[in-house]
Amino acid sequence: MTFLLFFLLVLSKSRADSFEEAYSDLEHYRTIYISENGPRLSVDTAQPKVISQRGGNATLQCKFNQDPSSPPNPKLRIKWTKLTSDYLKEIDVFVGMGFHKKSYGRFHGRVHLQDAGKNDASLVITDITLEDYGKYKCEIIDGLEDDTVVVSLDLQGIVFPYFPRLGRYNLNFADAENACRDQDAIVASFDQLYDAWRDGLDWCNAGWLSDGSVQYPITKPREPCGGKNTIPGVRNYGMRDKQKERYDVFCFTSNYKGRFYYLIHPFKLTYDEAVRACQKDGAKIAKVGQMYAAWKLQGYDRCDAGWLADGSVRYPISRPRRHCSPTEAAVRFSGFPDKKHKLYGVYCYKSDN
């Protein structure tokens, strides 16, 4: 028994010596810090997702807690950034340190701290734009300590598929961004498209999303759209070449400050006549995004096909009835008619500004 115990002790020491020889260089570069009391700084939010609308205001909640034993730091810094849709970059929004505060870029003059208490770093965004949609990072920097939290700003609105007069699958990513912007919208995110699919959007043409992926929503599986034996869902082509590849686009728009209306006119109009008729009424010919917003968010309903700014002819139906989209509420699309010879009514938009 004594011999066995002596043998085990020798074996253990031999293995320990071997371990030290094999990993002797660890001590030159590996340092382990142990904190008995946990972090001296922590950042949190009571509301990780905030919902607003274009033209409205929103408060992104952010509060920090410090070690009570730590002395006040006049150089404590509050920094807000916006994450791009692909999460590869951060856009500066606001930085505050003591009495020094600065807002950046398109956020200049529209953001400020709520200042609801000593440890409040909440950010207030006013006159929200479509581009404000997304995720924001609140970062607190206190000397060598720092911590962050992410808050999402969502907007009430609607996703709609879009392609120009050139026809389907003619937009690279930059073209898609411009196409949505021209229709008073932005390129939709995956989350926005997913919510639209859950709300019933079904579209069998693939379109760009803001992260550079190409996808399309299917609620009623069928052969030309991934197969009729597949399950409903958002079909994903993955990330595509933004410059070379061409698809349609899914756009997103929200509330507007103005009046969308069908112009009562004694006779039907060519496209150029329609543009002038709206101008004579103190307005502009309406955009596709404005029609979708009026239809979805205000329940606008009109069974008269009319010109829109992109040269398309559409009409919004929120109350399905005979001869007016009898099966579903929808924005009906009549194509891109000949601008010089075809005659229709016109939808106008008059901004409050």
TrEMBL record:
One GO term of the biological process aspect: central nervous system development
Family to which the UniProt record says this protein belongs: Belongs to the HAPLN family.
Protein name, UniProt field: Hyaluronan and proteoglycan link protein 1
InterPro entries per the UniProt record, alphabetical: C-type_lectin-like/link_sf, CTDL_fold, Hyaluronan_bind_Proteoglycan, Ig-like_dom, Ig-like_dom_sf, Ig-like_fold, Ig_sub, Ig_V-set
Residue span, Ig-like domain: 39-152
GO MF annotation list: hyaluronic acid binding
Keywords, alphabetical: Disulfide bond, Extracellular matrix, Glycoprotein, Hyaluronic acid, Immunoglobulin domain, Repeat, Secreted, Signal
Disulfide links within the chain: 204-225, 303-324
PROSITE patterns in the cross-refs: IG_LIKE, LINK_1, LINK_2
Organism: Cyprinus carpio carpio
The UniProt record lists the keyword Transferase: no
Domain Link: 158-253, 258-350
